[in-house]
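Task card 7
Instruction: Convert sequence to structure tokens.
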Amino acid sequence: MRRTFYEIAAGGAAPIAVEALARIAPLYAIEAEIRGQSADARRAVRQERTKPRLDSLKRWMEAQLAAVSQKSKIADAFRYVRTRWSGLTRFLDDGRIEIDSNVVERTIRPIALNRKNALFAGSDGGGAQWAILASLIATCKVNGIDPQAYLADLFARLVSGHPLSRLDELLPWKWAAIYQPKRAA
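Output:
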């Protein structure tokens, strides 16, 4: 949502787009405050502080859409937001979801730029396996885990008969808390 208004504002005199960005900025400030907290804590703060701001933003956008030329870029931006509102606000009800997809986009950019190298997969199955491995490596990086250490330990545990009922422990973000060796201080 923010990117759409940013692009309009960057194109020249666009006071409505600038106002939209000013109304969106506090949402990101709240997210910065709660980053690193538990999913339940993030959800509670979002319900208390972010949801009212988003409700106000939606009302403001609807009023602006009614007032601007329907053929303008800003009207297109407002309609874009309106048609995607439920997806854009999903993060309010789930503390695990980020406010935007920037983290994911930054994470997959190297994969997208390097996708020609994946042509070695040779089959749909090989491509699917490559995608799983690339996803695990990217998730390790996002969580500050050494991918090589994680994968070596993961494969060793799987080969050693790690209980199927506890496979969720081997997800990178849980593995780090349970199995990652503590660094010497």
